[in-house]
Amino acid sequence: MSEVINKNLSEIIDLIKKKEIKSEELTKLYIDRANKSKKLNSYITTCFEYTTQKAKEFDKKPNFNSLLPGVPLAVKDLFCTNGFKTTAGSKMLENFVPKYESTVTENLWKEGAILLGKLNCDEYAMGSSNETSYFGNVINPVARDTVPGGSSGGSASALAANLTPATIGTDTGGSIRQPASFTGTVGLKPTYGLCSRWGIVAFASSLDQAGPMTKSVKDCSIMLEAMAGFDKKDSTSIYKKKENYSKNLKNNIKGIKIGIPKEYRVEKMPKEIEELWNKGKSILKDLGADIVDISLPHTKYALPTYYIVAPAEASSNLARYDGVKYGYRSSKGSDLIEMYENTRSEGFGDEVKRRILIGTYVLSSGYYDAYYLKAQKVRQLIKKDFDENFAKVDAILTPSTPSSAFKIGEKTNDPISMYLNDIFTVPVNLAGLPAISVPAGLDKKGYPLGLQLIGKTLDEQNILNVAYAFEKNCNFKNEIKSWWL
Amino acid sequence: MSIDKDKIKHISKLARISLDSKKSDSLAKDLTSIFKFIEQLNELNTDKVEPLSSILNSPLRSREDKIDDGKIRDKILENSPKKNEEFFVVPKVIE
Fold first, then answer.
1. Residue A3 Rama label (left phi>0; alpha psi -120 to 50; beta)
2. d(CA A471, nearest CA chain B) in Å
3. Could you tell me if B21 lies within 8 Å of chain A, comparing CB atoms?
4. Interchain proximity B80–A356, CB inside 8 Å
5. Residues 65 through 94 of chain B touching chain A, CB cutoff 8 Å
6. Among residues 367-426 of chain A, which lie with CB inside 8 Å of chain B?
7. A430, A383 in Cβ contact below 8 A?
8. Could you report the predicted ipTM of this complex, rounded to two decimals?
9. Which of A345, A376, B72, B78 is paired with A328 by a 20 to 30 Å CA distance?
10. Do A360 and B11 touch (CB under 8 A)?
11. Contact between residue B40 and residue A370 where contact means Cβ atoms under 8 Å apart
12. Phi, psi of A291 (to 5 degrees)
């Protein structure tokens, strides 16, 4: 029975529908494995008694017509879960128990899924290695001394280690796609506005999007279908009909035009990544796609733009943590202002402080035009690059990351080198576009590497289809041995 | 541009984060290198470019000014670090 947990989400759903396994049995397999996998530090909070109870209820009165019938799922600890601690990886929210449910998780439960627990992440989703979490770093199951990427590092680690059949993360600058690439899994950042942001701990509101992380492209289409949808509680939610991504998934990509942007061939990029990118091109070409060379001339300015826009929005979003209404409060300080200052000093970690200070500075009097307004203008140019090219091509193929998983501690002392991890993922967030990272191969060390497909606004179905065709012909195999058990 | 300790002191005051001297030093160093990186943007002439604040084409939706929830005071107070009956408690503000 233990081989069940090696299966993909879609296969597990089939087993449940065919009554070959009960939700309670399935749940027990994941709970047992999680209990033996504490070394990975993927979980911040588990709620296994609740999961078991809910699984029993499902088995008593099963509804097999839902998308995720009786499927236990763990989610990133950035989604508010009613009655279960939601920490955002921060001391500030260590004991915060939301009294409401995020729309995205609510959508999953409505489709029959059951919460297993909350997965570790970088503090307030600020990080690319899961090393900024107050609850400790997460281990990549690929190799014991490597990071799983971030900020959805716990999600990627738990998924790759088979602690959950699928999961969800959030992506502000690459936080789904980069960890997916580092762990040999599939991660999709949807079009800005496709998934509701309501009930997700906010980082940078004009960039944040929730998305699925799965073991296959088909699983990804099922999860996206379950999560997405208009929500009147999010003023940036896009009003549109719900799509059947999983039913409409097809692997015929004949005649589809795929752009290859020359600016993504960056300095010092390992040769293996270049080779992998070429392999991706030839696979898609063999499947009948047209490969077109394109140019996105403002690519190199995306990261500097991001490091103005995201901290600016973060500094204003995180102003709410003042120790009054919820969250941590310092016991030190003789007056209200000192209480605020000590609360925020003790409650936030170093990276969060760094970004709040950057954001405060670029928004401060006398500097707003030079930094924030300038960044908004460059953001326009970056979006225009994509708009112009999407008149000519249907999707864009790039590497997901400039390297494979790096060693724990390797980049923690140099913020810029850490930020450079997101060089290929950040432009997509600035332009609000959908993009998927699909595993494409292993490097010499045996660590996974991903390729990214970027789509037009709301064209998730198209990039899912291209990724599906690619996956079928790439024959990627993750070689994770369960060394931590 | 270089960010010195005085500037860090000013920004941290604005951001309501107290910092000791050691932390201010390391943040000054970090922010100096980050701003050097950010200032690549000055290579670009953006005089004729409209700023982009949201990628959505339509203006933000607003709702009718009508109560559709409410009566959740006790729930909200449950997460308060310090409360007294139906109030949040803060350090004394006026003498």
1. alpha
2. 30
3. no
4. no
5. 72, 75-76, 78-82, 88, 90-93
6. 371, 373-381, 383, 415-416, 419
7. yes
8. 0.95
9. B72
10. yes
11. no
12. -95, 125
Looking at the complex, report in whole angstroms how far the Cα of residue A158 sits from the nearest Cα belonging to chain B.
29
Q: Quick check: A360 contacting B, CB < 8 Å?
A: yes
Q: Which domain holds residue A207?
A: 2-256
Find the CATH number of the domain harbouring A14. 3.90.1300.10
d(CA A303, CA A173): 9
Task: Please list the residues that pair with A104 across neighbouring strands.
Answer: none
- Asked whether the beta carbons of residue A377 and residue B52 sit closer than 8 angstroms, the reply is yes
A144 token code pair = 């014991």
Residue A288 lies in a domain: no
Domains along the sequence of chain B with CATH: 5-42 (1.10.20)
Query: Distance (Å) from the C-alpha of residue A205 to the closest C-alpha of chain B?
Result: 10
Assigned domain for A286 exists: no
The residues of A annotated with a catalytic role in the active site are: 76, 151, 175
**A456–chain B nearest CA distance, Å:** 13
Q: Is residue A44 part of a domain?
A: yes
Q: Taking a C-beta distance cutoff of 8 angstroms, is the pair A66, A111 a contact?
A: yes
- Cβ–Cβ of A377/B91 closer than 8 Å? no
**Residue pointed to by tokens 């998983």:** A405
User: Would you say residue A145 lies in a domain?
Assistant: yes
Cβ-contact A343, A325 below 8 angstroms = no
Residues of A with Cβ-Cβ distance to B51 under 8 angstroms: 373, 376-377, 379-380
pLDDT in tens, chain A (485 residues): 569 999 999 999 999 999 999 999 999 999 999 999 999 999 999 999 999 999 999 999 999 999 999 999 999 999 999 999 999 999 999 999 999 999 999 999 999 999 999 999 999 999 999 999 999 999 999 999 999 999 999 999 999 999 999 999 999 999 999 999 999 999 999 999 999 999 999 999 999 999 999 999 999 999 999 999 999 999 999 999 999 999 999 999 999 999 999 999 988 888 999 999 999 999 999 999 999 999 999 999 999 999 999 999 999 999 999 999 999 999 998 899 999 999 999 999 999 999 999 999 999 999 999 999 999 999 999 999 999 999 999 999 999 999 999 999 999 988 888 899 899 999 999 999 999 999 999 999 999 999 999 999 999 999 999 999 999 999 999 989 999 99
